[in-house]
């Protein structure tokens, strides 16, 4: 049984075949999916999905792209959502200096504020980091998450990974670990302790090989588990079991999987 710890199945690309996507998830023995918010509407949709489907959980938060749109009302509503029983994390949050859709000072301010809110409400954080390694490191060192955190879709160096592991973070692997040019990601996947590894799809983005270029979906998390099992010289079942246990630990969930 596998947990896709980071997906966006509320995305409009699933509108025409949403129920079929859900059936494929269940038939593939994907026992849990975390649907992750990136702004207030997507956070609300994520919580609604948790109410409608027993195997879906939620993370709520503001992506750096949307940082400049935040108001006081946004924070108040997110705090309400964070209290819902199947909200397991605050995210995705962080910095994105690749697209720079919000000014960097605002990205930093909103990132720090969300770490503080997660600490206040008692949730781990899910971090988005793109081309902002140094600033992200400085912020999490100065504002440590009391309940831990995950660097989603990790694609940085081993040197940075080693620092993050020493700070207590988990690293999550997605489609890029299957790509032919993913030398750094493969090195990290090989060296990271097995008990600090998670798997995700980031659906509908980052589709793994051999389906790269097509729409991603949670079922394809199997490809991530398979690739990690090859990298680690472990069985598929061993990686699936370990990453499920790791997700249960960081997200503090011990109920039976479906």
TrEMBL record:
Cited Gene3D superfamilies: Metal-dependent hydrolases (3.20.20.140)
Residues annotated for a divalent metal cation 2 binding in this entry: 128, 152
GO terms, molecular function: DNA nuclease activity; hydrolase activity, acting on ester bonds; metal ion binding
CDD domains: TatD_DNAse
Keywords: Hydrolase, Metal-binding
One cellular component (GO) term of this entry: cytosol
InterPro entries for this protein: Metal_Hydrolase (IPR032466), TatD-like (IPR001130), TatD/YcfH-like (IPR015991)
Highest taxon of the lineage: Bacteria
Any Pfam family: TatD_DNase
Residues at which a divalent metal cation 1 binds: 6, 8, 92, 202
Protein name: TatD DNase family protein
Species whose genome carries this gene: Desulfosporosinus hippei DSM 8344
């Amino acid at each position: 049984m596998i947990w896709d710890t980071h997906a966006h199945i509320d995305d409009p690309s699933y509108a025409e075949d949403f129920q079929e996507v859900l059936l494929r998830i269940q038939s593939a023995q994907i026992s849990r999916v975390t649907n992750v918010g990136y702004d207030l509407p997507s956070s609300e949709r994520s919580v609604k999905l948790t109410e409608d489907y027993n195997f879906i959980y939620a993370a709520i938060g503001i992506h750096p792209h949307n940082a400049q749109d935040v108001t006081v009302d946004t924070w108040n509503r997110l705090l309400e959502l964070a209290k819902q029983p199947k909200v397991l994390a605050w995210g995705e949050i962080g910095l994105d200096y690749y697209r720079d859709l919000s000014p960097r000072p605002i990205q930093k301010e909103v990132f720090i504020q969300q770490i503080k809110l997660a600490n206040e409400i008692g949730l781990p954080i899910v971090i988005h980091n793109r081309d902002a390694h140094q600033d992200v490191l400085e912020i999490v060192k100065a504002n440590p998450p009391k309940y831990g955190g995950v660097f989603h879709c990790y694609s940085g160096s081993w040197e940075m990974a080693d620092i993050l592991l020493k700070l207590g973070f988990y690293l999550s692997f997605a489609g890029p670990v299957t790509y032919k040019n993913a030398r750094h990601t493969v090195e990290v996947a090989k060296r990271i302790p097995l008990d600090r590894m998670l798997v995700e799809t980031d659906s509908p983005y980052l589709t793994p090989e051999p389906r790269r270029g097509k729409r991603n979906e949670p079922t394809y998390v199997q490809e991530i588990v398979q690739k990690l099992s090859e990298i680690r010289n472990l069985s598929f079942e061993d990686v699936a079991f370990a990453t499920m246990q790791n997700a249960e630990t960081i997200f503090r969930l011990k109920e039976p999987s479906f």
